[in-house]
What we know:
The protein is mainly beta. It is built from one helix and twelve strands; from the N terminus they run αββββββββββββ. Mean pLDDT is about 75; it is low at about 20-25.
Amino acid sequence: MKKSLYLLLFCGILTSCKLTDQPSGEEQVVGNEAVKDSSAVNDKDEHGCLATAGYVWSKINKECIKAFTGVPLNPITNPNSDDESLSAYVLFSEDGNQAEIFLPNDTKSIVLTRAAEGKPWVFEDWQLIPLKGYVLKKGNENKFSGDGMPGKKITGSDTEEQ
Length: 162
């Protein structure tokens, strides 16, 4: 009787233990299907930019950047707002002929091009006009404006570049 009780206890302990020969990493095989481990979250975009850390892909710079490192443009409806999440940000190409616009709550940027120095940057119905800083218009409506002072440039390593 005592041996039967120990055998039953041993079988119970053995079947309740988690098997340790499961594949490690993000996926485990359950039956014939691979199941993703919910603890491994992958929030990188198609370019490898880590969105939860605030990185977005810059079409002009061809690298992951934090959009707020560009020139901030505040909404016309609330120009003195301290809420940076409401602002648009502009990055310029090295030659100054392209301007990349990062709009609030938008995952994709817009690249505007200008014909010559002193002219506005244009793409479809968007215009970035150099006027006491910059004014960003959509159609005939002024959307954002700013004094033209850039933020600090932060790229994929979270270090400032000079």
